[in-house]
Design brief:
By secondary structure, this protein is α/β, with parallel strands linked by helices. It has eleven helices and 15 strands. The protein folds into two domains: about 5-250, L-amino peptidase D-ALA esterase/amidase (4-Layer Sandwich); about 265-375, ArgJ beta chain, C-terminal domain (Ubiquitin-like (UB roll)), CATH 3.10.20. It starts with 6 loop residues before the first strand and ends with a helix.
Length: about 375
């Protein structure tokens, strides 16, 4: 994510992760930039989210992040800690007050240990460089098996631009902003209103289309920073960039599903022939979030009466006739030869045709395994 010109990142280990791994990161744009923010819809947002919401979302120059403690359910003391993190980092980075966001991820309910975090921020700032993006990505991870990020070159009319990305997320993932943090940088220049619009659309088309365990996080955050100079993108170039931003965010979102805690399968649930868009979305979330279906996916079990059950539950009380859904696996009918081989694949499509109209929806989901239960049963201890 430091591939686009003008961005630097640094990281450090301050002891919040018992493994001793990197757990503090800073990202900053060294020049002027525009920014955009989308965060959790939880009624109990984390202290970091509350603090960042108090800032101008279009005037952010970077972010300071810690992993290992979510600083959520910590009340006003937690908000004080979040403010101290940003003020400390802003001073070290020589940034104006109110231009640095803050994010925290990890165990909910624990106060941050600022005696560790503040020196960790100082070490992260001291290590910052244009090559620090990969270590920043590692620092923000918690139960992730791997970081999720990269750099992409986009060909536009008259110029090329670079998009950098870093994200984390493996558990507590559900539509409505998946526990996830995601940061995108670019050397394109984009006007404030345009960046806010395309960032919101990118979230709808990516992080709001995934589910690992049906649990919403108080910490979910997507930030986009545009640090380019010259003329701002407009017209066809702006819309091409918007499509690329959604694609990059969707790629990171699907990596979260594939890296879901204990997951072995990533399945795209494709609802078709719904009465309207709201119905398609409603059924997709019932099918994709069903623990019975998710465990069947894990067990390679063709017990697809569970899909009928989930559809019936989703459409309880719906007007009009409700039909038995027509199921396909990678476009092959559920009763066809070879379905068992499809279920062995790490990735496949589950198609659910409702026969009620022309609307459709998609949702990417992981399975539910023994490892998920073990990991989360022992997470806090």
């Amino acid at each position: 994510m430091t591939t686009p010109a003008g961005f630097v990142a640094g990281s450090a280990a301050c002891g919040l992760k018992t493994s001793g791994a990197l757990d503090v990161g800073v990202l900053a744009c060294e020049g002027a930039c525009t920014s955009a923010l989308v965060d959790t819809t939880s009624a109990l947002p984390s202290a970091a989210v509350v603090h960042t919401r108090s800032l101008d979302p279009s005037a952010l120059r970077g972010v300071v992040v810690n992993a290992g403690s979510a600083n959520a359910a910590t009340g006003s003391p937690g908000q004080d800690d979040a403010a101290k993190m940003t003020a400390h980092a802003e001073g070290l980075l020589d940034l104006p007050a109110g231009t640095l966001a803050v994010c925290s991820t990890g165990t909910i309910g624990d106060r941050l240990d600022l005696e560790r975090v503040l020196p960790g921020i100082a070490d992260a700032v001291a290590s910052r460089s244009g090559d620090g993006g990969e270590d920043f990505n590692r620092a923000i991870c918690t139960t992730d098996r791997a970081p999720k990020g990269g750099a992409f070159r986009l060909l536009l009319s008259g110029a090329d631009v670079v998009i950098g990305a870093a994200a984390k997320g493996a558990g507590m993932i559900n539509p409505d902003m998946a526990t996830m943090l995601a940061y995108v940088t670019t050397d394109a220049r984009i006007e404030t209103d345009d960046l806010g619009r395309i960032t919101a659309a990118a979230a709808v088309g990516s992080f709001n289309r995934i589910s690992v365990d049906g649990q919403m996080s108080p910490s979910d955050t997507l930030m986009v920073f545009a640090g380019g100079t010259g003329d701002p993108l407009e017209g066809a170039n702006l819309e091409r960039f918007a499509a690329a931003l959604t694609a990059v965010c969707r790629w990171m979102a699907i990596q979260m599903v594939k890296d879901g805690e204990g997951a072995g399968h990533a399945v795209r649930v494709r609802i078709t022939e719904a009465a309207d868009a709201a119905e398609a979305e409603h059924v997709a979330r019932h099918v994709g979030g069903s623990p019975l279906i998710k465990t069947a996916i894990f067990g390679r079990d063709p017990n697809w009466g569970r899909v009928s059950q989930a559809v019936g539950q989703a459409l309880a009380g719906a007007s009009g006739q409700v039909h038995e859904p027509r199921l396909t696996f990678d476009d092959a009918p559920a009763d066809s030869v070879g379905v068992m081989a499809t279920l062995e694949r790490a990735e496949y499509d589950l198609g659910v045709a409702l026969g009620r109209g022309d609307a459709s929806a998609e949702l990417w989901v992981s399975d539910l395994s023994y490892a998920y239960v073990e990991l989360n049963a022992e997470y806090h201890t």
